[in-house]
Design goal:
The complex is a heterodimer of chains A (about 450) and B (about 625). By secondary structure, chain A is an alpha/beta fold. Helices cover about 35% and strands about 15% of the residues of chain A. In chain A, strand 10 and strand 11 form a beta hairpin. In chain A, helix 10 packs parallel to helix 12. The longest helix of chain A has 27 residues. With about 625 residues, chain B is mainly alpha-helical. Chain B folds into three domains: about 110 residues, no CATH class; about 150 residues, no CATH class; about 210 residues, no CATH class. A two-stranded antiparallel ribbon of chain B has the order 1-2. In chain B, strands 3-10 form a two-stranded antiparallel ribbon. A two-stranded antiparallel ribbon of chain B has the order 4-5. In chain B, strand 6 and strand 7 form a beta hairpin. Chain B is globular, with a radius of gyration of 29 Å. The two termini of chain B are about 30 Å apart. The relative contact order of chain B is 0.09. Classes of the chains: A alpha/beta (about 450), B mainly alpha (about 625). Chains A and B meet through strand 6, helix 7, helix 8 and strand 9 of A and helix 6, helix 9, helix 10, helix 11 and helix 15 of B.
Chain lengths: ~450, ~625
């Protein structure tokens, strides 16, 4: 481990990166044809999928464009997206019905995160038998994630809460995770950009690869075999929920085995990596958000993964936004009761978040992949599992999608879907494009029509 | 459902409505014949059918209370009814006589809960070590100064704690970290000659068989501590094969041994706390834990770490299954510095001190707040907890102790004079504060960044002190909670809660408790006014008990609510000790613990010892138990 790196600012590090990052697919081979819709050419840049979650809903009046179709004007909250406006879809009218109480009472915040990518009604429990459903990113990761070193990455800027209840009888697991590998397995997120970096790129150096590489790989493999055998024996002795835990453990082992097998080519592609990576978790929230965005961009750019989720903050987050002169807690404010002063602050927070999204999208757009950009080859969904933080409603959610999905999506528009259109229908359409079609996910009723003209 | 309602209506008019001056004697079928009609009359409007309020659907209880599974429900019904929180004020009220009758019936019903018939120790789901436990275990296993779990993803919290088996999942990211940590831990251990020699105890003079024998003994010594029970022959054989194989492929002997250690540290037997299920030979599908399992239960409860040599040796001899030995060990373990873990992990979560780091009051309003003050707040409450633990004080001191621990920073904050320097020392409090609820840490974590929240404070007390967590607000009213700022003092604004009966049911109590602490601002400083409004900290709790100041409120809680508090603390600590949420049947164990606690004069150690010899702590049921 090389934790004692010289201090590097984000700017420096990015400058360093642009020149030294070895691209996994050959720039020279790609051509205009890579923009062809859902190109099957092996040399075309791959399609990526990202999801960004923001808590507590938004002030919808300043979010929703007044007109539909092309040529809409960006409302106050979305203004920071001017530079990528033509790469955007504003999606109005999508609903997460399973974020509603449906008989489970309060706990909208916890539900808003757990439902965000799953579309599944979380089981109301403080501890035993947590249940949600598989999330769209994990559905994609399990189907096509084998193509890359990491099937998916999970990022965030707030650790899970260390104590207490998170929301009205829901385990904190529901509030602090949006990715679910299965109905009872939330996929924890990494909040330290340094740790993300080490994980993504901290593989063996070329020198290490040379020296006894094969033997070391074999030894690693033998450890995995040993613990797999341990687990199999235990599985015969234990029952009930214990089996579930052992299965989670085994899944982790298999994932690592797979990575070990594909490690040769990974090690090779990491060879030219000169950048030292970020220093830990920055104190400044904006900096933290941007560093994490950088990690997502890097992971996509290097094709270390094609699937990422990113929680700007946990559901119901009550953090303050003093950096933009909003000293109040976000959750506290979101119960604005129509108060104009509070609404003004909410708007500011919403816009601040969108500014960070604009940063992420700008970075993706700045990276060329043949004739296209990384943003062109992505589908980035941004939104909240609640519509209005005051009303706690789950219809007409604030949702954006950026990137044309390798030309399969006609961006630059504001689309309004019929009331109660499941958000999961969007996921169906995205999974198709990822080459990971499913019969349904969450409460989907079909695919979303009209993403392309 | 309709049919039943109709029948009951007839039934009521026939036999019940003619209530006279004395409560009717309770008959054998008191619940069905006397209580059900009363529910039908006063409660069914809201509590019946699919849309029953609060999920309390009387249709389920038409034939009986189902006390063996629904104990908690009826305990709650008894509480809200006798405190006249229910029915709501705007609904028809039972007469005082009816109320007494209902109370007697429900108490009789609760008393029928059969602990013998349903003796169930429960089943803890296979628990992986959480971050604190992992770090501590590595420290005690190898003596290496390294905290690998600081890099692990956060452990999710369930039932208020981060050691709950069901909630501790293993995402692939964590598995990766385990393997990387295993490698690092071994490297760091072997980099230190002294630590390395503690592992490589057995030396071989020659090679071949003799060398193998030494290797086998060394890995046995290590694995048997890492697995917290003797390694089996089968395990040792496989470990040896792993090491021999590496050696044959060209690894140096030391490298091969390190690989064996890595395999041990990545094994599910290290990562998880394995307890085997009962077999067919165990009566009633319940088995008594063996000495090694008890050793781990004790050590992870009190130290958040692995057992030490003494525990292992008592496990081996079988003595650790005796209650007296266990109690002796509890005393010994609490005296060990490792019991600091109980403060960090139990108190840190019960009192939610861990959330302190996430709260930043608005610096413009609270310029005196800084990192030092935040750290001092936490330290105060930790030292306070430890003084009650180590001096074996009454747990009621949590509510009414007239002492605390401060350094200069905190003394200034509290307006105490003559305290200089960074060192904490015990002080007597002035008349403003008593007990933990008036400590700045708790007051801060129950506030918003810009203002106090009596609702949060009241709810916190109900959740963590009285064990009466209020139900979540009904759907669609959240925006009323803590309404407009411009309409008057916070207290006047909050009156809205009480005007609306569906809110008042819970808020009457919650807000009253919270307003009792209004003399303390966001960061826990004393104040007499909030903006232009004078603070009124007086209040009246259900049962017509009134208080005027925060200190009076604390005394009142200690006096009138000692049972509730003892039960609450017992349940929290038992949850933490077991690593699972409590079930209805656990109340039997809780009652036994409470009786012992009471017998020992509410001494804190009495509580811990009673938990350590309780049935759920020492036994385990199989998956087949209904």
């Amino acid at each position: 481990m090389t934790l004692k790196q010289p201090q590097l600012t984000r700017r420096n590090m990015l400058r360093g990166m642009g020149v030294s990052l070895a691209l996994p697919w050959m720039e020279s081979l790609s051509s205009a044809s890579s923009l062809t819709r859902l190109s099957s050419q092996p040399d075309a840049p791959p399609l990526r999928m990202g999801f960004v979650f923001v808590p507590n809903g938004v002030h919808l009046q300043d979010w929703t464009p007044k007109t539909e179709g092309f040529g809409f004007e960006l409302p106050y909250i979305l203004e920071p997206l001017q530079a990528v406006k033509d790469d955007l879809l504003v999606l109005s009218g999508l609903t997460h019905d399973k974020g509603r109480a449906n008989g489970d009472g309060a706990g909208d915040h916890a539900r808003s995160a757990s439902v965000f990518l799953t579309g599944a009604q979380p089981r109301k429990t403080a501890g035993s038998n947590i249940r949600s459903g598989i999330s769209v990113d994990q559905a994609a990761a399990q189907a096509v994630g084998r193509a890359t070193k990491f099937a998916s990455i999970e990022l965030g800027c707030e650790r899970g809460r260390g104590a207490g209840n998170c929301d009205s009888g829901y385990s904190c697991a529901y509030s602090s995770n949006i990715a679910w590998a299965g109905e009872s397995t939330p996929v924890g997120k990494e909040t330290n950009p340094r740790a993300v970096f080490e994980r993504l790129f901290g593989g063996d150096s070329p020198a290490q690869v040379e020296k006894g590489y094969a033997r070391r790989q074999a030894m690693k493999k033998s450890v995995l075999d040993f613990i797999t055998e341990d687990t199999r024996r235990l599985q015969k002795q234990l029952g009930g929920n214990d089996q579930q835990k052992l299965e989670e453990y085994l899944n982790g082992v298999r994932e690592i085995e797979r990575r070990l097998e594909s490690n040769d080519k990974i090690a090779a592609s990491n060879g030219e990596f000169e950048y030292n990576g970020p220093d830990g978790e920055p104190k400044d929230y904006r900096e933290h958000l941007r560093l994490m965005a950088d990690m997502m961009v890097l992971a996509f750019q290097s094709d270390t993964t094609r699937i990422a989720t990113y929680m700007f903050a946990n559901a119901g987050s009550n953090r303050n936004y003093r950096n933009i002169e909003v000293p109040d807690g976000h959750h506290d404010l979101s119960h604005h009761g129509g108060n104009a002063e509070k609404l003004a602050k909410i708007r500011k927070i919403n816009r601040f978040h969108v500014e960070q999204l604009a940063y992420l999208l700008g970075r993706l757009k700045s990276i060329r992949e043949g004739e296209s950009t990384l943003l062109d080859n992505s589908m980035i969904v941004y939104g909240s599992g609640l519509s209005d933080g005051n009303r706690h409603n789950n219809e007409n959610l604030p949702v954006l999608m950026a990137g044309s999905g390798r030309g399969s999506i006609t961006t630059g528009r504001h689309l309004r879907f019929p009331e109660e259109t499941p958000m999961c229908n969007l996921f169906m359409s995205m999974l198709d494009r990822m080459g990971a079609p499913v019969d349904f996910i969450g409460d989907s009723t079909g695919k979303l029509h009209g993403l392309e003209v | 459902m309709r049919t039943m309602t109709a029948c009951l209506t007839v039934f009521i008019s026939a036999s019940f409505v003619s209530a006279n001056d004395v409560p009717a004697p309770i008959t054998e079928h008191g619940f069905k014949k006397q209580a059900v009609p009363m529910f039908e009359m006063y409660c069914a409007d809201c509590h019946q059918g699919d849309a029953a309020e609060g999920g309390f659907d009387l249709d389920q209880y038409a034939e009986g209370s189902q006390i063996q599974t629904e104990f908690e429900t009826w305990e709650k019904v008894l509480r809200v009814v006798t405190e006249r929180q229910m029915p709501p004020k705007d609904a028809d009220q039972p007469s005082e006589v009816e109320l007494q009758e209902l109370r007697a019936i429900l108490q009789a019903e609760l008393a029928t809960f059969d602990c013998e018939a349903n003796a169930r120790p429960g089943r803890v789901t296979l628990r992986r070590l959480n971050r604190a436990e992992y770090n501590n275990t590595v420290r005690d296993l190898l003596g290496v100064d390294y905290r690998p779990a600081d890099e692990f993803p956060s452990d999710d919290v369930g039932n208020g704690f981060d050691n709950i088996g069901d909630v501790l999942v293993i995402p692939p990211l964590l598995m990766e970290k385990y393997l990387a940590a295993a490698e690092q831990i071994v490297e760091r251990t072997f980099a230190n000659e002294e630590l390395k020699q503690k592992i490589l105890v057995h030396k071989a003079e020659g090679e071949g068989e003799e060398l193998l024998e030494a290797v086998r003994k060394n890995i046995d010594g290590f694995a048997s501590r890492a697995f917290r029970r003797p390694a089996t022959d089968e395990e040792l054989t496989r470990l040896l094969a792993l090491m021999v194989n590496a050696y044959q492929q060209g690894a140096e002997p030391e490298e091969a041994f390190k690989l064996g250690m890595q395999a041990v540290l990545a094994s599910p037997h290290f990562i998880f706390r394995v307890e085997l299920d009962p077999t067919e030979e165990d009566a009633d599908g319940i088995r008594e834990l063996n000495g090694y399992e008890i050793a781990s239960r004790l050590s992870y409860f009190l130290w958040s770490s692995m057992p030490d040599e003494e525990l292992f040796s008592l496990a081996k001899s079988g003595e650790l299954t005796h209650p007296t030995t266990i109690q002796d060990q509890v005393r010994r373990m609490l005296a060990d510095p490792k019991s600091k873990a109980l403060t960090e992990n139990f108190a840190g979560q019960w009192l939610q001190l861990r959330n302190l780091t996430q709260i930043s009051p608005n610096p413009e309003q609270f310029p005196s707040f800084n990192a030092d003050l935040r750290a001092a707040m936490r330290m105060e409450t930790e030292l306070f907890f430890e003084s009650i633990l180590h001096e074996n004080r009454s747990i009621l001191d949590f509510l009414t102790a007239d002492f605390s621990h401060v350094n200069e920073t905190l003394a200034k904050h509290y307006g105490l004079e003559g305290i200089k320097g960074n060192e904490f020392r015990r002080v007597s409090l002035n008349t403003d504060r008593r007990g933990v609820l008036t400590q700045a840490s708790i007051l801060l974590i129950t506030s918003n960044p810009t203002r106090t929240s009596p609702v949060k404070r009241g709810k916190w007390i109900l959740d963590n002190i009285l064990g009466e967590p209020p139900p979540p607000p009904p759907e669609g009213v959240e925006d009323l909670v803590e309404a407009e700022q411009a309409l008057g003092s916070l207290r006047e604004r909050m009156e809205e809660h009480r005007e609306n009966e569906s809110c008042a049911v819970c808020h009457r109590k919650m807000d009253t408790l919270g307003f009792g602490l209004e003399n303390f601002d966001v960061i826990g400083s004393w104040r007499n006014t909030d903006g232009k409004f004078a603070i009124d900290a007086s209040g009246t709790l259900p049962g017509a008990i009134s208080f005027k100041t925060p200190v009076e409120l604390m005394e009142l809680l200690a006096e009138r609510k000692s049972q509730e508090f003892s039960r609450c603390l017992t349940e929290k600590m038992l949850t933490y000790a077991l690593g699972r949420g409590l079930e209805s049947y656990d109340r039997c164990a809780v009652n036994v613990i409470l009786a012992e606690l009471q017998e020992k004069g509410y001494r804190f150690r009495g509580l811990i010892e009673a938990i350590a010899i309780s049935e759920p702590f020492l036994k385990r049921e199989g998956k087949g138990k209904p």
